[in-house]
Amino acid sequence: MPDIPRPALHFTCSTWMNDPNGLLFHDGTWHLFFQTNPDGPDWGNLSWGHATSTDLVHWEEQPVALRVEPGELVFSGSAVADTANTAGFAGPGETALVAIYTSHHVPPSPRSGTQTQSLAYSLDGGTTWTRYPGNPVLDLGMQDFRDPKVFWWEADGAGHWVMATVDPPGRRVLLHTSPNLRDWTAASAFAPADPPGGIWECPDLFPLEADGETHWVLVVSVNPGGVAGGSGAAYVVGNFDGTTFTATGDFGWLDFGRDHYAPVSFSGVPEGRRLMVGWASNWDYAAAAPPTSWRSAMSFVREIGLVTDDGVPRVVQRPVVPLDDPVLAVAELTAPVVPSGVSDVVVSTADGAARVVVTVDGDRRELRLDRRQSGVVDFHPAFPSVDVAPLPPGDEVDLTVIADGSLVEVFAAGGRVTMVAQVFPLAPLTEVHVVEQRTS
Questions:
Q1: Are 356 and 371 a contacting pair, CB within 8 Å?
Q2: How far from chain centre, in Å, is Cα 26?
């Protein structure tokens, strides 16, 4: 079978890839670490791959940053620049970049069967990494305890590090605090009465402003139980006081497509911006996907914001990518959302053999993404899908559809509704056609 077209502006990897890790901006460089098997195309030997960018659009893959070791797989986590040298890893004139990751212990480790949190640090801007000899820095003796997202919290001139982790089967986010990244104290747990999805993974917690008020957004990835089936990402808005997160609303979905999992945000970003990346796949069928010379992709980087609709804060997202880049096939339009109003955006290969159809349906007030004729679809029963998202009130909706080789991303309603779909055509998606049907 011919190779599936490789996306040009989405980051891709030639070996196995899943969750983004350690997203960090430091000294003019954007760092994207990610779960990878450095030795092959299938899940296993989990390590941290590494890519860098100067513009968040074009990525250059770097050598593996944290490689699997006997007894320890390197699972997901985050990274920070320890500018105040709280951990003591840096010498005079140095800044330590610190990775906080989950050690998944297997034989011959004496902790085999458990997961703990560990540190590694870099003194050369992220090129080489050294594991902290005092690892692990947090061990609760749990079989499932992972995905640390660490950030600095400060108020009234005093501050501390905060680590958000998950108890996956318990569907809880656990919060710990530390003055130095090495010594951690339990602070609180967030365990809603009606949690979404199956197990929880890859938490993120960050502030956003809406109408002059600061809110905190907690993101968790769920598998299974995603809104479109299989894995997905949910969020809830609330308050955070440095130790405790309290939800003030209900959970919503960060993306309504099937292929946006484990999204997390960059640390070290200049004040006022929140940027996220997700894995453009789904655990339902990731391992069954057709073999290619590249193995999976990340989503576009997204800028995250918050708006208030009828007093309810909602996340909005926009892609950080130049829509006029000639490698992309793009449609931008305003579509009616009225009875009998139907607008289709068809993205296809040049010969029309493979297509993805994005529909604004005014009767049902919904957005649909249909990839049932998108190329190779028969490798898993969950793949040939029609994903659906509700549209907010109004007689029209803005819609942007972006195709990059074999990935389609959709942004609608000012970024309130988004969808990601990976597809497997035998030629790149290069053609865009818009059809509007509306009866008077």
A1: yes
A2: 20
Cα–Cα distance between 247 and 227 in angstroms, integer?
20
pLDDT tens column, 64-103: 999 999 999 999 999 999 999 999 999 999 999 999 999 9
DSSP string, 393-412: SSSEEEEEEEE-BSEEEEEE
b/e for 288-298, b at 16 or more Cβ within 10 A? ebeebebbbbb
Q: For residues 1 and 200, give the distance between their C-alpha atoms in angstroms, rounded to a whole number.
A: 37
Who contacts 387 (Cβ-Cβ below 8 Å, separation ≥6)? 228, 256, 257, 258, 368, 369, 419, 421
Contact criterion met (CB below 8 Å) for 414 and 314: no
Answer yes or no: are the C-beta atoms of 23 and 56 closer than 8 Å. no
Centroid of chain to Cα 73:
21
The residues assigned a catalytic role are: 19
pLDDT at 1: 54
Render 55-114 in DSSP notation, one character per residue: SSSS-EEEEEEE--BTTEEEEEEEEEEETT-TTS---TT--EEEEEEEEEE-TTSTTTT-
pLDDT along the chain (440 residues), means of 10: 88 96 98 97 97 98 98 98 98 97 98 98 98 98 98 90 98 98 98 94 97 96 97 98 97 98 96 94 96 93 97 97 97 95 97 97 97 97 98 96 98 98 97 82
Please choose, from the candidates 136, 293, 291, 309, the residue with its C-alpha nearest in 3D space to the C-alpha of residue 210.
Answer: 309
How many angstroms separate the CA atoms of 114 and 65, rounded?
Answer: 23
Q: Is the pTM of this model over 0.85?
A: yes
- All structural domains of the chain, each given as residue ranges with its CATH number in brackets, are 16-319 (2.115.10.20), 329-438 (2.60.120.560)
Tell me 5's DSSP state.
P
